[in-house]
Design a protein that fits this description.
CATH class of the largest domain: Alpha Beta
Strand order of the largest sheet: 6-5-4-3-2-1-14
Number of domains: 2
Number of helices: 11
Radius of gyration: 34 Å
CATH topology of the largest domain: Metallo-beta-lactamase, Chain A
Helix content: 40-55%
Strand content: 15-25%
CATH architecture of the largest domain: 4-Layer Sandwich
Number of strands: 14
Structural class: alpha/beta
Length: 384
C-alpha cells in the first residue's frame, strides 16, 4: 500500500492497518531519534570546536598582548638609556616641516646632553611624533621657544601636559623672550581641569598636582646674545636672528664639554648666526629653496590663485636660500648640518634631494642630514 506523507501516516496508520501500526511507529521513532542524536552530536562537536578555537585564540591573544607590553617596556628602557647616555650628545628632529605641510610634524628639536632632555620649539604634531620615536617624555627638563609663529608653539600645551601624564615628576620651565609667560599661562589654563581630573582619579601618588603646570623664564626681547640656561655643565645661549617682520626671534647655542650645537630658528643669514655657527659640531638649519618657491609662486599665478602667489613671494623675505646656506656653513667650518623647516616640504625623496640637498652639496663638504621627521645625529664627546 502506498502511504501519504509520513507525518500524516503516523496518525492514519492505526486506522489503515492496525496490525502494523506499532512496528511502523517504533521504526519511525528510531529513525527520528537517530537523526536527532546525529544532529545534537554535530552541534556539540561544533560548539566544542568553536569553543576550542576561541579559547586558543583568546589564550594566544592574551599572550600576544602581554608580550607586546613587555617588549615595548624593554625597548623603551633601552632607547631611554641610549638617549640619556652622558657620553654622547644626541640630537633628534621630531618635526621638520614649515606651517603648510599636511603630513610632516612642524618644527621641534630635541637635544639630549649630559643626561638632560632639552626641547627647542614644539610645532603642530611634535608631541605625537616624539612619542612615536619613543623619546622619554617623562625626562623632559626644559623647553626653549625661538619665536611665536604657530608652527613653533602649536603643540607646546601638549608637550607640557603629556610629559606630565607620561610620568614627569619634575618642574618644567619654558624659556623664551618677552611674551613667553603669557603663552605658558594660557596653556596652563587650558589644561587645568584635565590635570585636576587626573589627580583626582589616579591620586597624588601617581599624578602629583605639584607638577601640573609649567612655568616661564623670560629673557629680554632686546638682548642680542644672552645666556639663558646653565645646568651641570650644559650652557644654552640665546642669540638674536632676523625673521622680519616677526619680532622677537632667537636662535640657540648649546654647549657642553667642548662641543657646540647651534639651532638657527627661522632667519635669513645674519652676522650673529655666522658667529655662533663657527666651528659648530652641528648646525640645525632652517632651509628654503628659492628656485622651488618661485616656481610655485608663478604656477599659482598662472592658475589665478593670487593669494597663494603673494604668500609664496613674501616668504622669501625671511628664510635663507639653499645656496647661501651651503656657502655660509662651509665658510664657518660647520662639521655637520641637519636641515629642518623645509619650505616647502616635498612628497618624494628625489625632489627633496634635487631642490635641497644637491644645491647645498655644491658648496658644503661637511656631513649633511636631510631625512625629515626623525632625523637623528649623534656627537661623541671627546672626538669629532
Amino acid at each position: 500500500m502506498t502511504y501519504p506523507d509520513s507525518s500524516v501516516a503516523v496518525w492514519l496508520l492505526p486506522i489503515i492497518n492496525p496490525a502494523n501500526s506499532i512496528s511502523f511507529i517504533r521504526n519511525k521513532e528510531i529513525k527520528v531519534n537517530k537523526r536527532r542524536t546525529i544532529t545534537i552530536s554535530a552541534v556539540i562537536i561544533a560548539i566544542v570546536a568553536v569553543a576550542g578555537v576561541y579559547l586558543f585564540r583568546t589564550a594566544n591573544n592574551t599572550q600576544m598582548v602581554r608580550n607586546s607590553v613587555i617588549q615595548r617596556q624593554e625597548s623603551n628602557e633601552e632607547i631611554r638609556a641610549e638617549y640619556l647616555d652622558p657620553d654622547v650628545i644626541t640630537v633628534v628632529l621630531p618635526g621638520t616641516a614649515g606651517p603648510m605641510s599636511p603630513t610632516e610634524a612642524q618644527t621641534a628639536n630635541a637635544i639630549f646632553v649630559n643626561g638632560q632632555f632639552l626641547l627647542f620649539d614644539a610645532g603642530d604634531y611634535a608631541q605625537k611624533r616624539m612619542e612615536q620615536l619613543s623619546l622619554p617624555m617623562d625626562a623632559l627638563d626644559a623647553v626653549f621657544i625661538t619665536h611665536f609663529h604657530n608652527d613653533h608653539i602649536a603643540d607646546l600645551g601638549e608637550v607640557m601636559q603629556r610629559s606630565y601624564m607620561l610620568g614627569r615628576e619634575k618642574d618644567l620651565v619654558i624659556y623664551g623672550p618677552t611674551g613667553t609667560d603669557a603663552i605658558v599661562q594660557g596653556f596652563n589654563a587650558v589644561y587645568a581641569e584635565d590635570s585636576d581630573y587626573r589627580t583626582l582619579h589616579h591620586t597624588e601618588e601617581f599624578m602629583p598636582s605639584e607638577f601640573h603646570f609649567a612655568t616661564a623664564s623670560e629673557f629680554s626681547a632686546d638682548e642680542t646674545v644672552v645666556e639663558v640656561y646653565r645646568n651641570d655643565g650644559v650652557v644654552v645661549t640665546a642669540f638674536r636672528v632676523a625673521h622680519p617682520p616677526v619680532e622677537p626671534v632667537f636662535g640657540y647655542t648649546i654647549e657642553f664639554a667642548g662641543k657646540k650645537v647651534v639651532i638657527s630658528s627661522d632667519t635669513v643669514i645674519t652676522e650673529e648666526l655666522r658667529n655662533q655657527s663657527r666651528d659648530a659640531d652641528l648646525l640645525v638649519m632652517d632651509v628654503m629653496s628659492f628656485e622651488l618657491v618661485e616656481l610655485m609662486e608663478n604656477t599659482f599665478r598662472e592658475v589665478g590663485d593670487e593669494r597663494n602667489a603673494v604668500i609664496f613671494y613674501d616668504i622669501r623675505e625671511y628664510h635663507p636660500d639653499v645656496n647661501d646656506i651651503g656657502v655660509m656653513a662651509e665658510e664657518q667650518g660647520v662639521q655637520r648640518m641637519a636641515l629642518t623647516h623645509f619650505a616647502p616640504t616635498l612628497p618624494s625623496r628625489r625632489l627633496m634631494r634635487h631642490y635641497y640637498v644637491d644645491p647645498i652639496r655644491a658648496n658644503y663638504t661637511g656631513e649633511l642630514y636631510a631625512d625629515g621627521d626623525g632625523t637623528t645625529v649623534q656627537i661623541p664627546l671627546g672626538g669629532n
